[in-house]
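Journal club side-thread
Mid-discussion, someone asked how the predicted structure for our own chain would compare to the paper's figures. Pasting it here so we can look after the session.
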Amino acid sequence: MNRSAPIPAFAAFAALAVALLLPVPTNAGGMITLTQGSTKVTGYLALPAGEGTHAAVIVIQEWWGVNAWVKEQADNLAREGYIAFAPDLYKGRVATTAEDAHQYMSGLAEDEAIQILLASTDFLRSRYDVRPNAIGVIGWCMGGKYSIRLAAADPGVRAAVMYYGAPITDAAAIKRIQAAVLGNFGAEDKGPTPAQVNAFRAALQKAGKRVDFKIYPKAGHQFANVNNPWGGYREEAAKDAWARTLAFFQKELKRASIPKPSGTTK
């Protein structure tokens, strides 16, 4: 399908019928399983209060999996008025040790992960309560890597946030990105290093992309996760990065996609 095109009226009606039959959480987020095309996806869905249509965000896990912290981030976005969906790339597995996390991440094929993520964006667009031109993505660590790669794979993604994820180096992939890009990185991170972050920023700018990167002093990898097992959580940096994230999504998703009153041209 053309992921950047509006849903025709008949398709929207069909999507409404399908969406109404989907198991959805009430009051709080919950796990759902769906089939989009030929891809089966399980994930955590968090819904905002209020009726009408909403902007939506794909929430991509760290290397630990879809654990309580990732679900909390989806819930936080739902409280801000977004429909948030965290697809489970590990298919039910959640790591509690770095050894298990490394094993799970190493066993995840990138093409399979992208297929799940593309099915997830199509799922959000199929929902009657999602504005299909207001899809964003956010990810941390491994999820930061896949956040920017999903933006390269799906031209309909409007805003991408990456927290300390591996940059893209392929010029053709960078050219395919249509989303505005926000990045939050640590000055003491060894992967990606500040030099890699700055090179990626330069490549995005050279390709004419809208990019806003910030490198936080005295912050390393996973600085935004309070459960960082290596003591690397940095509260001030984490709060600032989250504020930047919310302001970015507000501008690129909410404000840019609010339906204009009839008769207006601006």
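Post-session note: The radius of gyration is 18 Å.
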